[in-house]
Specification:
The complex is a heterodimer of chains A (549) and B (234). Chain A is mainly α. Chain A has helices at 2-18, 21-53, 59-92, 96-100, 106-128, 130-140, 144-175, 180-203, 211-220, 229-241, 249-280, 298-313, 315-318, 320-336, 340-346, 350-375, 385-389, 395-425, 429-456, 466-469, 472-504, 511-544. Chain B has 2 domains: 1-75 and 152-161 and 182-234, Rossmann fold, CATH 3.40.50; 83-150, no CATH class. Chain B is globular and about 50 Å long.
Chain lengths: 549, 234
């Protein structure tokens, strides 16, 4: 254990060295945004709780259900996050060869990597979940004991998720032979998808068209099996909300199981780590037959061809597509199950409203996907960027290649999603046309924004791909993308409802109104043009500057 | 072929290279020698266009690397000291990519790739992912990729990093053949015996400034490169 602590010192010092006043000031806007998120999350949870607890008879049951559902979702998210982080931390990270070359026992390396994995995969959850529990505490007027027990049980809860995730990561790496990491991540993606699909199909089978059915559906979600750590966590804190005496059994169970699963993950690691490491070493097969003939990309398509090849060979780059795919399917499924018919009786514009909400939501998916696949694409060149920069290719062409590489799939996927969801809600032709066109315009502008800003804030030295889009530049990109999407859809909504009003009242649009609609269209095109053009121009300028790699 | 005219580079007010002026003729092998952190790599990076000179200008075959980067880079081959490559490409794919971005026509590119693969001895691993290559094989691939478009000027930063004795001999032979074919070769190294063996002229750089340029005869008459190096840097 002493050695593990010793190995942790460089990491701690690195973190300490990175905390400077300059770095703090640079991150200040993001801290501010984080605080706003906390406030909104807190108020939202508090209001929802107020509403739920006010429901006659079911109130308290539903409130506890919401708590258990949140904790259950957290545990799933933490386990998945731990599996993915463990794969890179234990097997791919750059310090592995260094550690293995030192007189350090495998056991110590495993401990170090366990701490690293649990910390890296849990800090984000730890940083965004407090407002939820604080809202619960304040809404119930819970005592200090609630918060204390919450913190004390959350630690073993995280350890349990970490232990489970790490053990699965070792086993996956052992099961899948050559190119195992890639296959392992593929498996995780598929398991996630299948899990989500089966879970939703089996649990949400009742159409929630009326409030009592909705409540019934909610209550029928099985998130509180007594064998799951999430249940133990819920049972540890829930009684304290009502100032009931603390229950020591479930916190004890969490703690003992946390210790047990970490021992198990250590044992599995001890058994498999060396074998797994040997298996993942890249090896040369001498005498492999080369393909002398074959495709030749030519100057214009060279960078695009190279990017496509690398993308499909690098599991780190495409594995998240499975999760995104699963989420999109869930998203479409949700639209299919919307009780629009019954709501339309009360609110006739529900389809139009849902189409606009759909555009905003699809836009948000677009920004998230763009952050991962477009914003990151220049940084993904990594330290190899010197190859392109010292070649006779102008930066404009590089940016254009990167743009096409991301823009084409993103546009196909999102236009299809918008088309299918509009079909599901029964949009008319005009609404369908407007939605698909808007998505197309947004895909162009947000893709350009992603490539351009990715070039303005390149991060050529990175530990894992996700860290590129999570960097301050990546966050900044997301904010601008959100703003552009909201503005575009708002202008369009205004114009659309002006038009719809005129059609419904059978009064033709006058010249001024027509002019306003024209201006709205021009504003959307101008806004999106500059969203594309300015970052691309800035990115080009940045990449032509010094590149000390 | 290669002209550096009063070239300087500063980072945050500190001069990494100061007032560097030199030229390398066609067919000449020129060595820039200096201790660690003398400014050799910065000088080479400016010549490749990765860094922009704070002052002065660099001409490659008459093309200004800042004002006419595409033309200048078209005649340039560059072998860096660290072999960062596209790990997920196969050797042959990487070479095809390099040939493509240099605008070489398909038939010529394939012929040239086959020829160079034979010379550099990587035939057996050309269809393997680069991530599986040893350091020496990567270095060979780097050299090979720098020569695909028949450059007129070749910049090499620490040429023999990671190469086995056979690889060293082979690269030395390639450099000699290139120079006799009229290619201007610019070597940046801190290895005295390499400079002594390959270069017709050697420039000595220390703390960013060029201290002296000597030809082979002058170096020999002054007791060899080691003497020259120690005298100048001490």
């Amino acid at each position: 254990m002493k050695t593990t602590l010793l190995l942790l010192i460089p990491k701690i010092i690195s973190i300490k060295n990175s905390i400077t006043l300059k770095a703090f000031l640079k991150r200040l806007p993001f801290i501010f945004i984080g605080l706003i998120f906390w406030a909104i999350f807190f108020i939202g949870t508090y209001k929802v709780l107020d509403f739920i607890r006010g429901i006659f008879y079911f109130g308290e049951i539903l409130s506890k259900k919401l708590l258990s559902m949140t904790i259950f979702t957290l545990s799933i998210f933490l386990v998945l996050s731990n599996i993915i982080t463990a794969l890179s931390s234990f097997y791919i990270s750059k310090d592995i060869s260094f550690l293995l070359s030192k007189p350090v026992r495998i056991k110590e390396i495993l401990r170090l990597k366990t701490i690293e994995t649990i910390f890296s995969s849990s800090w984000m959850v730890i940083s965004f979940i407090p407002p939820f529990f604080i809202a619960y505490g304040i809404n119930y007027g819970a005592s200090f004991l609630f918060y204390l027990v919450l913190i004390l049980t959350f630690i073993p809860f995280i350890l349990v998720s970490g232990g489970v995730g790490i053990t699965i990561a070792h086993l996956l790496t052992r099961i899948f032979p050559v190119k195992k990491t890639r296959l392992a991540i593929l498996a995780i993606g598929l398991i996630t998808f299948i899990f989500l699909y089966i879970f939703i199909r089996s649990q949400w089978s009742i159409s929630p068209e009326r409030p009592e059915r909705f409540i019934h559906s909610l209550l029928s979600l099985k998130t509180d099996y007594p064998y799951l750590p999430g249940f133990w966590m819920t049972e540890s804190v829930a009684p304290l909300l009502k100032r009931q005496p603390p229950n020591f059994f479930y916190p004890g169970l969490l703690l003992s199981f946390g210790a047990f699963i970490l021992i198990v993950s250590g044992m599995v690691g001890n058994k498999l780590y060396n074998i797994n490491l040997e298996r993942i070493q890249p090896s040369v097969r001498y005498g492999a037959k080369a393909t002398v003939e074959g495709f030749y990309p030519g100057r214009n398509g060279a960078v695009l061809w190279k990017d496509v090849k690398i993308f499909f060979r690098d599991a780190g780059q495409w594995s998240q597509l499975f999760i995104i795919g699963a989420l999109i399917l869930v998203y479409i499924y949700n639209f299919k199950t919307l009780p629009l018919k019954s709501i339309a009786n009360i609110f006739p514009f529900i389809r139009e409203l849902m189409a606009l909400v759909n555009m905003v939501t699809a836009g948000l998916v677009l920004s998230a996907v763009s952050a991962r696949f477009l914003y990151s694409s220049i940084s993904l060149e990594g330290m190899s960027f010197w190859i392109i920069r010292t070649s006779p290719v102008n930066v404009k062409r590089i940016l254009l290649s990167k743009f096409l590489f991301g823009f084409i799939p993103v546009t196909v996927i999102l236009s299809t999603v918008v088309f299918i969801t509009n079909m599901a809600i029964g949009s008319d032709n005009l609404l369908m046309f407007l939605s698909v066109c808007t998505m197309l315009i947004l895909c162009i502008s947000i893709s350009g924004l992603g490539i351009g800003m990715g070039a303005v804030y390149p991060k050529f030295k990175y530990e894992n791909i996700a860290s590129i889009s999570m960097s301050p530049g990546g966050m900044f990109f997301m904010l601008i993308a959100f703003a552009v999407i909201l503005l575009t859809v708002s202008i369009e909504a205004w114009a659309f409802f002006q038009y719809k009003k005129a059609v419904l009242s059978n009064v033709p649009l006058n010249l001024i109104e027509k002019g306003q609609l024209f201006l709205a269209g021009t504003a959307i095109i101008t806004l999106n043009f500059f969203t594309f053009y300015i970052p691309m121009k800035m990115g080009k300028k940045r990449l032509e500057e010094d590149l000390n790699i | 072929m290669i002209v550096l005219d009063s070239v300087s580079k500063s980072f945050n007010g500190k001069w990494a290279v100061k007032g560097l002026s030199l030229h390398v003729e066609k067919g000449e092998v020129f060595g820039l020698l200096g201790p660690n952190a003398a400014g050799k790599t910065t000088a080479i990076k400016m010549m490749t266009g990765l860094l922009r000179p704070t002052e002065g200008k660099i001409l490659l075959n008459g093309y200004d690397i800042v004002k006419e980067p595409i033309q200048a880079k078209s005649i340039l081959g560059y072998v860096p000291d660290k072999a960062f490559l596209y790990e997920k490409l196969k050797g042959r794919e990487f070479l095809k990519f390099i040939a493509s971005i240099h605008g070489i026509e398909k038939f010529t590119a394939f012929k040239r790739i086959d020829e160079l693969i034979g010379i550099f001895g990587i035939k057996e691993i050309e269809d393997e992912l680069i991530e599986s290559y040893s350091q020496g094989m990567r270095q060979r691939l780097l050299f090979l990729s720098a020569l695909i478009h028949n450059p007129q000027a070749l910049l090499i930063d620490e040429p023999f990093v990671g190469l086995d004795p056979f690889g060293v001999m082979m690269i030395k032979d390639v450099i000699r053949r290139l120079s006799s074919g009229g290619v201007a070769v610019f070597l940046a190294t801190h290895s005295l015996h390499i400079a002594e063996e390959l270069c017709e002229r050697v420039g000595l750089i220390s703390k960013g400034s060029l201290i002296s340029i000597k030809n082979k005869k002058e170096i020999v008459s002054e007791g060899g490169l080691q003497e020259f190096f120690l005298k100048i840097t001490s």
